[in-house]
């Protein structure tokens, strides 16, 4: 019985929620504004997601959501997609969606 309990606790710890950065950076009324926080994701979500332009002055960061589009989930399976001036990146560890948060401007 004791080994069953220890095994059950190990499974419980393994499914702890992912924590991701959530927020955005962009221009508002001529000024670059930003707000990022760490957010606990829903239990069944596996990805932290971020998108950013080459200057990193336009950035979004979030947890995967139940409403995340199929197109974004396809990108997440690849890990990263770069199109024109936009990079979309997904990762699977706590607060790993921080590449776009570093400022280049």
What is the CA–CA distance across the termini?
59 Å
What general form does the structure show? Answer: globular
**Spatial order of the strands in the main sheet?**
2-1-4-3-6-5
Annotation, overall tally of beta strands? 6
The class by helix and strand makeup works out as alpha+beta
Radius of gyration, CA atoms, in whole angstroms = 17 Å
Q: Tell me the domain tally.
A: 1
How many individual helices?
Answer: 2
The major pleated sheet works out as: 6 strands, antiparallel
Please provide the ordered H/E string of secondary-structure elements: HEEEEHEE
Strand content: 35-45%
Briefly summarize what is shown.
This protein has 105 residues and is α+β, with helices and mostly antiparallel strands.
3D structure, described in words:
This protein is an alpha+beta fold and 105 residues long. The protein has one domain (18-91). The protein is 21% helix and 39% strand. It is built from 2 helices and 6 strands. The chain has helices at residues 2-14, 70-78, and strands at 19-28, 31-40, 48-53, 59-63, 80-83, 86-91. A 6-stranded antiparallel sheet has the order 2-1-4-3-6-5, with helices on one face. The longest helix has 13 residues, at 2-14. The model has no long low-confidence stretch (mean pLDDT 88). Residues 1-17 form the signal peptide. Keywords: Signal. InterPro entries: Snake_toxin-like_sf (IPR045860).
Properties at a glance:
2 helices, Snake_toxin-like_sf, single chain, 105 residues, 39% strand, 6 strands, alpha+beta, signal
């Amino acid at each position: 019985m004791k080994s069953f309990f220890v095994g059950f606790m190990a499974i419980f710890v393994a499914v702890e929620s992912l924590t991701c950065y959530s927020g955005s950076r962009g221009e508002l009324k001529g000024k670059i504004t930003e707000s990022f926080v760490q957010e606990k994701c829903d239990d069944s979500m596996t990805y932290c997601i971020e998108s950013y332009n080459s200057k990193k002055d336009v950035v979004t960061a979030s947890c995967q959501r139940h409403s995340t589009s199929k197109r974004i989930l396809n990108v997440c399976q690849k890990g990263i997609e770069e199109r024109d001036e936009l990079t979309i990146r997904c990762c699977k560890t706590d607060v790993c969606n921080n590449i776009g948060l570093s400022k280049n401007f």
